[in-house]
Design brief:
mainly alpha, 9 helices, 80% helix
Amino acid sequence: MPLLNNPFIRQLFSSFLDLAPILAVVIIFQVFVIQQPIPDVAELIIGTFLVVLGLTLFVQGLEQSLFPLGESMAYAFARKGSLLWLLAFAFCLGFGAAIAEPALIAVADKAANIAATGGLIEQSGVAKDSYALGLRVTVALSIGFAILVGVFRIIRGWPVHYPVFVGFGCVAVMTPFAPDEIIGIAYDSGAIATSTITVPLVTALGVGLATAIKGRNPMTDGFGLIVVAVLMPMIFVMAYGMII
């Protein structure tokens, strides 16, 4: 069909196929297990279309902007030969991407509300906003530091399991001493912060850097930044809970 030759239409169809299993599970359980009619069918159809459209536009944006931008900047910094500027760029990229993560913003606000309900902070808007902002900045700093460590690992050619072992060791040591209320948030914070914005940029940075540096393999050296980024917020957030 001529219509399917259009790249955007193909991506739209591909996004729908990606979401189809989720829709099938929801509809099957709603109709055959719960045995209740699907509420607001019209809204479900409109919402599904919006999700498919949004996912398509997001993937298009990654392919046309974030991936090429991250790879080209990593390549440019590697050719420039300045380790200090490259590490500074890695930290700023990680911090900026994490602080803008929609999932982190939402979860930080929810954590502030729960902390206020549990009596950890005052039941006031100022206290909640301060707690949420502190949590966001803490996670963003940890992501920035994690990307810095990951980039330094690529430059030095270290195996990815070195920082992973150290990170898990720190998590294991800190967990018994951290407040119970913060441990769950800390363990989830890494996955929350490495979401729609951070992962594409960081992956592009790692692959671009490994491609630009002679002797590095983009497959074995370029990937692995995300696992460090997932670990580091656990350490920083538990430290944040111990300090406050």
